[in-house]
Q: What sequence folds into this?
């Protein structure tokens, strides 16, 4: 261009060398940094630990009822991270409320569960009425639907702030809001440290740590008992210990108490009853496998359980029965995907909870790149009993050719919902009659979900199939976490399937296209009165084959089950 000013290369270099009067991007203010420091503390000599990012976000979110942009910028500065990095983590988790600086934070957030068991109990109408009465009157109350709160036996369930509300009603929730009752409820009446020690608690942990009980003998008991992982995958526990133990140290351990599968509440129930039994299982596992540190990942919805477990850990550390590994309790932030082991590990590291591609498996390259023993809460809860009573005592239970015991989380149209300790291989009909008092008044069995949202849906005529690992796959289902949700003649399998598909669409981490797009598209198609069976089958095939993790792989199960067992409901007969 004729009139363009010619700038030489040397002049450009000189301009680039000149110091900027202001850095690019938004800068943290002194006031915001002071507010953040007051809550998370001064930076240690080596700086704040990167893996504590989510913990620090919780502190800010709790204190200010949200994450203001100024605090996100200040936290990034304090932790020597980019603002983008902090923002992308905060925006991933449902329980973090990101706010503009000129926005007003909600005074109280009321969460109403909209998952299947609570929906059957009327949570949809409860939500609408609470939004009408509380949210739209300028009181600063925010009312939102949320996925499963892990209180399916108390349906409909809600939370006011951090306080759980069982069998929630408009009147009950409104009263708690008016009284500003937002802190966690009084703690459950759990077995304390003194009572646990009086019945032989931590003696096994002492024996294993001292070598009085050899590690190999412990693993052999697990292998002989047939104990499998009870979080859903069902991998043999003894084999897992042996694999991780064979890896080079240092080795770590991660405990999964992020039971977000709709219909599941057994971990919470056991934790609230006997936390030290679980902690002894943790110590034994860590000692046998040689784990120098343990990270316990507890879902954020379990506020009372978190307080209880914090107290139990303090009691254990004050009166340690043996040398303890470093134990850190980490708080989830409302992401079902973090129930997947590698996504949980990413979250413990302070990142977005996105599943990793495998191999390598976390037994080899897990938490912080180290070999990691990952276990579900209930699996560890069994350890003391197995070692005290022996493998034969555990495996002697069972029905219909199966071995062992299972804790079933039962909810829906039954008289007595709750956690039922029953023989492995028990049928749904037997479980209802012997443990649940039968169907609720005015209801007859129509269908059931044997393994939570992802385990599929079966009709009444298949209520005599044994409930256990490997028995349900021939029928297109699986036991998963043993979350049994029961439907009656007043319910619809189509509506149940749509409810869980919407849950999957909401909870997909978005990392892979088949799951992110597939769950959303499936929910749209399943909303039609008459299903496009061919398109849904094709979609199910792609999701199952190409999704990275179990969420997308299992999400098609409800589709296939409805088309196979309930075609009359969707015009596919």
A:
């Amino acid at each position: 261009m004729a009139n363009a000013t010619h700038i030489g290369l040397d002049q450009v270099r000189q301009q680039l060398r000149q110091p900027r009067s202001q850095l690019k991007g938004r800068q943290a203010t002194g006031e915001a940094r002071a507010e953040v420091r007051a809550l998370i503390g001064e930076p240690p000599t080596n700086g704040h630990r990167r893996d504590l990012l989510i913990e620090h976000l919780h502190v800010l979110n709790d204190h200010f009822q949200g994450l203001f942009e100024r605090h996100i910028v200040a936290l990034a500065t304090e932790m020597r991270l980019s603002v983008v990095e902090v923002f992308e983590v905060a925006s991933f988790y449902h329980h973090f409320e990101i706010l503009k600086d000129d926005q007003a934070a909600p005074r109280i957030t009321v969460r109403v569960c909209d998952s299947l068991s609570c929906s059957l109990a009327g949570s949809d109408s409860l939500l609408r009425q609470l939004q009408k009465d509380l949210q739209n009157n300028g009181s600063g109350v925010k009312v939102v639907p949320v996925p499963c709160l892990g209180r399916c036996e108390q349906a409909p369930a809600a939370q006011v702030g951090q306080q759980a509300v069982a069998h929630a009603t408009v009147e009950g929730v409104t009263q708690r809001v008016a009284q500003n009752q937002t802190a966690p409820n009084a703690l459950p009446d759990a077995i304390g440290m003194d009572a646990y020690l009086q019945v032989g608690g931590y003696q096994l942990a002492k024996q294993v740590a001292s070598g009085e009980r050899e590690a190999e003998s412990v693993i052999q008991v697990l292998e002989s008992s047939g104990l499998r992982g009870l979080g859903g995958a069902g991998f043999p526990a003894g084999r897992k210990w042996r694999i991780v133990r064979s890896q080079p140290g240092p080795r770590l351990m991660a405990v999964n108490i992020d039971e977000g599968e709709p219909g599941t509440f057994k971990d919470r129930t056991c934790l609230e009853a006997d936390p030290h039994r679980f902690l002894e299982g943790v110590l034994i596992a860590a000692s046998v496998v040689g784990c120098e540190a343990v990270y316990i990942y507890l879902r954020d919805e379990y506020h009372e359980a978190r307080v209880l477990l914090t107290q139990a850990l303090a009691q254990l550390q004050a009166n340690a029965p043996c040398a303890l590994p470093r134990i850190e309790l980490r708080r989830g932030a409302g992401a079902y995907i973090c129930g997947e082991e590698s996504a949980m590990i990413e979250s413990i590291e302070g990142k977005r909870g996105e599943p990793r591609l495998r191999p390598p498996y976390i037994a080899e390259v897990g938490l912080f790149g180290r070999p990691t023993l990952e276990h579900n809460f209930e699996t560890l809860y069994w350890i003391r009993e197995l070692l005290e009573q022996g493998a034969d005592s555990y495996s002697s239970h069972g029905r219909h050719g199966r071995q062992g015991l299972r804790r079933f989380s039962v909810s829906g149209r039954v008289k007595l919902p709750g956690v039922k300790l029953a023989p492995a291989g028990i049928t749904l009909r037997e479980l209802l009659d012997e443990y649940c008092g039968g169907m609720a008044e005015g209801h007859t069995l129509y269908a059931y979900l044997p393994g939570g949202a992802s385990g599929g849906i079966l009709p009444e005529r298949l209520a005599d199939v044994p409930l256990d690992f490997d028995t349900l796959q021939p029928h297109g289902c699986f036991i998963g976490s043993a979350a049994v949700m029961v439907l009656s003649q007043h319910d619809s399998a189509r509506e149940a399937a749509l409810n869980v598909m919407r849950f999957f669409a909401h909870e997909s981490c978005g990392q892979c296209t088949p799951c992110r797009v597939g769950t959303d598209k499936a929910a749209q198609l399943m909303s039609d009165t008459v299903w496009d069976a061919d398109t849904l089958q094709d979609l199910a095939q792609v999701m199952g084959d190409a999704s990275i993790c179990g969420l997308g792989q299992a999400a098609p199960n409800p589709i296939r089950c409805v088309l196979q067992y309930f075609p009359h409901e969707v015009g596919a007969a």
Observations:
- The CA atoms of residues 430 and 464 lie 8 Å apart.
- The mean pLDDT is 94.
- The first strand starts at residue 67 and ends at 68.
- The radius of gyration is 25 Å.
